Structure prediction request, 133 residues.
Amino acid sequence: MPLKTPYVLSFLILMLMGCQPKKMDQSEINKNMLSKAQTVLKSDNVQIIPNDKNTYYLCFTKSENMVKQKLSYIVLDPKENIIVPVKTLIDGNVSWLDENHIKTSQKMGIAQQGASNVIRYSIDVTTGNTTKL
Prediction:
């Protein structure tokens, strides 16, 4: 009887380990993000930039037109939920500011001498709040 106990315990441990959900590796997550972003942004030329902790993914595409370049972007989470819906900037850029904020910049009008015509915003991806920088 004492020999059966280790076998039963070993069997139970193996069963419990086998029932744990499989974790997706980062490359699989990136493939899923790319596929979702390409569908939503309607482009095959999509770039994806994760934040520092890989909790959100900034996905964007730029048009070929160099005169008035259109940039469309979204923010996704690892479950492929759209956190920030599709937004478009003309002659603009988007990047991570920190873990939960993206920075957008966009040229507006003609620059006056000694002044900038670039408008910058910070967008909190968790709340959607926008702040002018």
Observations:
- The chain has a mean pLDDT of 82.
- The two ends are 73 Å apart (CA to CA).
- The beta strands are 47-50, 57-62, 70-76, 82-90, 92-98, 101-107, 118-124, 130-132.
